[in-house]
Amino acid sequence: MKNYYIIDFDSTFTQVEALDELVRISLKKHPEREAIYKKIEDLTNAAMEGKLSFRESLSGRVQLLHANEEHLKLLVSRLKKKVSSSFSRNRDFFKKHADEVLIVSGGFKEFITPVVLPYYIKRENIYANTFKFDDKGNIIGYDETNPLSEEGGKVKLLKQLQLQGNIFGIGDGHSDFQLKESGLIQKFYAFTENIARQSILEKADHVTPSFDEFLYVNNLPRAISYPKNRILCLIVGGVPEEAIKVLSKDGFSIRQKPTFEEKYVADVGMLLLGDGEKLDDVQLERAVKLKTIGYLGNSRHKLSHEIATEMGIVVFDDPKQNPRNAQFIPKRMATFINNGDTYLSGNFPSLQLPKVGNAHRLIHIHKNVPGIMAQINQVYARNNINIVGQFLMTNHQIGYAITDVVTEYDPQVLKELKEIEQTIKFRILY
């Protein structure tokens, strides 16, 4: 059966609530703007949490707007810069599935349409309210006959559409959950990249911290192979808040602890250590999922670089105690996870890589023995893989091979690469 994807706009496709942003634009010079901002935010949240009917919330917010067509132009410009990161990087998904993606929102077409059209969303697949204007271009109301202006409007609309197939809903609010409650959709995914409403999380079939996560669990084409929210990033010791923010903003799953607790050893993917922290050899050897370590200082006598190298773990530290290291080290860690760069690593060959479009990047870390690259390339040749680009750096212990390949290939290739005898770590980057 055909699949359909019903996607909310405010705080889902975009990072913000558009009406909240519009009032900040329209009332920029109003003496009571802060009080009005608060009223609109309260009305928004009350509706999203199911504490107020959508019609009451919408009417109350529109009455407070004092906005016109010029304000809407400024709003659209702002919203285009506020598209949620995980939606933005998965533009290709929308291009390939243009017929199946619907934007369904209690917001307004006047600002939704120009924001989503560049993402290959079809105009006829955008369902939202519309404003009413006076002859001077001032917003004076909205079309009250539109089902999306009513309580349970998304349910009423979907009943009218009579879509035949499997329907998945993605959103952050009560109106999105109502689709699941009505039985009209197969699964409701609570989207939490921008905001997490506890009352909604408790009702969701699946909590998706990013659109990457949704695509991953449904085995759909995506920009990155493994959602960053599934990579556990453990922060240990005295680490400044600015360092934590770098990694949190990038979407990793953050845990902050005073020590490297035993329960995290088997699952940690990234480890950021404050200056002075020591990492036990036995713990390091058992951290089999660990990909990179950041150390805010000189790590040479605090953890074994040799063991890290043997395990394919890239270490970034700052032997010279540079004041910038609070941001610099976590940025290097994120860049390694995102792009494969090992630039300025303390234990790996230093490599900076260009980002390649329309390709998958495969990382193969192996013991530096003769013939490995020949085996790797034999796998590609045997499976008729078209190589877009290839990079190799080595030191006396390991080889670090990056291969960019065309996106169409048999998954058996990945299995064969992992099974090459001297392989230490292998992963698809994107």
TrEMBL record:
EC number, as in UniProt: 3.1.3.3
Keyword entries, A-Z: Amino-acid biosynthesis, Hydrolase, Magnesium, Metal-binding, Serine biosynthesis
Molecular functions per Gene Ontology: L-phosphoserine phosphatase activity; magnesium ion binding
Reactions that this protein is recorded to catalyse: O-phospho-D-serine + H2O = D-serine + phosphate; O-phospho-L-serine + H2O = L-serine + phosphate
Pfam family membership, one: ACT_AHAS_ss
GO BP terms in the entry: L-serine biosynthetic process
Pathway connected to this protein: Amino-acid biosynthesis; L-serine biosynthesis; L-serine from 3-phospho-D-glycerate: step 3/3
GO cellular component assignments: cytoplasm
Cross-referenced CDD domains: ACT_3PGDH (cd04901)
Annotated InterPro entries: ACT-like_dom_sf, ACT_dom, AHAS_small-like_ACT, HAD-like_SerB, HAD-like_sf, HAD_sf
UniProt-recorded name of the protein: phosphoserine phosphatase
Organismal lineage: Bacteria, Pseudomonadati, Bacteroidota, Sphingobacteriia, Sphingobacteriales
